[in-house]
Design goal:
Radius of gyration: 25 Å
Shape: elongated
CATH class of the largest domain: Mainly Alpha
Largest sheet: 4 strands, mixed
Length: 253
Amino acid sequence: MAKLKVKYAIALFELSETANTLKKDLDDAIWIRDSLSHNDIQVFLKNPGIADSEKNQLFSNNFSDKITKHMMGFLYLMVRKNHESFIVDALTQYIDLVNRHFGRIKAKVVSARPLTDIQIDSITDVLSKKMDMEVEIETEIDPDHIGGYYILVNGKILDNSIRSQVNKMKKRFYKGISIARVVSAKALSEEEIQTIRDMISRKLNTEVKVNGVVDPDLLGGFYIVVDGHYYDGTVRSKLKDMKKSIKRGKFEW
C-alpha cells in the first residue's frame, strides 16, 4: 500500500512538472491535504455507504474552481479507485517530492525539553550544510526521552540523545582520543588549531585530534563538530567575540 501512495504522488508530480504548475500545485496540495485531514471529512470519505457522486461533489464544491484540472482529476481518480483513504498520504508524498525538487526538506527534532531559538538555528544550519538543501525544522517535545534530542530527516535518525552521548563517551574512554572537525572559511594557523585543540581537550577531558577543513563558501569564522556537538562561529556578528576567545584561550561551549 505504501508503494501505491508513492506511485500516485510520482504520477501527480510528473503531471505538475509537465504543466509547469509545480509551485501552484504545491500550495494547493498543502491546502487540500490539510482540509481533508479533519476527522469528520475522513469519516465521510472512507464510508463505503456514501456514493461516489457525493464525495466528488464535496471536491467540486470546495476545490474545482481553485485548483488545476490534473489536481482535480487526481481527487476524482482516488474516489473511482476506492482509494479515498490514501488521498492525504499520497498528497503528503507529493508535497515532499515537490519540496525536494525545489531544494527543500523537512526535519523533525524531538527533545526532552523545548530547544532555544539558537539551538534550533544551529541544527538548521548544520542540516542545511550537510544536505545542501533548505531545511524546515519541526519540533516535538517527548518528556519520556532521556535527554538531548534526536532528528528525523530523510528517513534517517540522527541521534544526539544522552543515551547516544553515553555510548560515545564509552568509546572515547576506551580509545582515549576524540576527533574534532574544524571547518573554516580560510586555513587556520597552527597556533589557532593548537588553541582549539587545547580548549576542546579541557572540555572533554581527553586527547583530541583536530582535522582542519577549508570551506570558502563560509562567510567567515569557523564551526566545530566533535562527538555530536556543534559550535557555530561563522556568523559575522560572532566573529569578534570568537577571535577574542581564541586569543584569551577561552572557549564557551
